[in-house]
Specification:
The protein has 308 residues and is of the alpha/beta class. 41% of the residues lie in helices and 14% in strands.
């Protein structure tokens, strides 16, 4: 879209903030048929999904009563795998083309997962994959801080958009990482459309370089680029999830790479995403906030009637 070109990356011309469905090719009849069947799927799927999520929240609270950390971790992994794999099946993700999360990590080794983020399905996949702790970034120009999220905070952020944290609270990455549980960080700071990947913050790389954790990098991707795509950048989060539930199936593919030690983590990350034809875009969440405000104002002011 020409009117949004000013938000594209100057070097590559790529705009990672545009909706993935900017040029939908589905016909009106296809949309009507999809919506009719979708209503039935919503009625069946949504109540079951929310019961499953509520069950996971209750189990997570009960696990706090267990003193033995290793036992607590095993129960959490098993129960979350069952619950959130079922959730994925209910939203149409029946098969995931992916590599298993590395299982041979030393008990005293801190494990960090870096991932792109474009869909609520990302969160469900990661919860069933390794039941990790999710980390939130506290942004600043120079040094960034981090804080661990509870399961409730993670789930809430899947259905309700949470504004970036600009305070100086939080801890260093070294203090946040636990040797018992892998931690997941959506390092871009916002959801993008998979036309490129926002470059990691310089201070994040510096902190990773300093602690040398067992690092796993994910690229979670979706092929669907219609109005019903799993990818979301500008829609209301809850409404987007409802739209996802209208799909008979949602294809997901996850590629990953891991390393125990690197002399240059920034280059390691770049090489991984370059190998999947994903350019690192020298922008950040601030440009996304500006784009979204402009996009919503433009769509509201225009005569174009959106069907979502």
């Amino acid at each position: 879209m020409e009117k949004f070109r000013k938000f594209a990356d100057p070097q590559t011309g790529i705009n990672v903030f545009l909706p993935a469905y900017s040029n939908p090719k589905t016909t009106l009849i296809d949309r009507l048929l999809h919506s009719t069947l979708g209503i039935v799927l919503i009625i069946i799927r949504v109540p079951i999904i929310f019961v499953l999520i509520l069950t996971s929240l209750i189990i997570d609270k009960l696990l706090q009563l267990i003193i033995i950390q290793s036992l607590k971790r095993k129960i959490r992994v098993i129960t979350f795998k069952i619950i959130y794999r079922t959730v994925l099946h209910l939203v149409g993700v029946y098969k995931i083309d992916h590599q298993d999360f590395p299982s041979q990590v030393n008990d005293d080794q801190k494990c960090l997962i870096l991932s792109n983020h474009s869909s609520p399905l990302d969160v469900f996949f990661l919860l069933q994959q390794s039941a990790p702790n999710f980390i939130r970034i506290h942004w600043s120009d120079n040094e960034i801080k981090f804080s661990s999220q509870t399961l409730w905070q993670t789930i809430k952020g899947t259905f309700i958009e949470i504004q970036p944290s600009l305070d100086s609270n939080g801890s260093t990455l070294k203090d946040i990482l636990s040797s018992q549980t892998p931690a997941i960080l959506f390092f871009e700071g916002c959801q993008t459309n998979q036309n490129g990947i926002l470059v990691p913050h310089t201070n994040l790389i510096q902190q990773i370089q300093a602690i040398q954790p067992f690092l796993n990098i994910y690229f979670i991707k979706y092929k669907d680029r219609t109005l019903f795509t799993p990818i979301n950048t500008v829609r209301n989060y809850f409404w987007h999830f409802i739209i996802l539930c209208t799909n008979i199936s949602n294809g997901m593919k996850v590629d990953s790479v891991d390393t125990e030690k690197q002399s240059n983590y920034a280059n390691f990350i770049k090489i991984f995403y370059d190998s999947h034809n994903m350019k690192l875009i020298n922008q950040d969440w601030k440009q996304f906030i500006e784009f979204k405000e402009y996009y919503l104002q433009t769509i509201k002011a225009s005569s174009y009637k959106k069907i979502d």
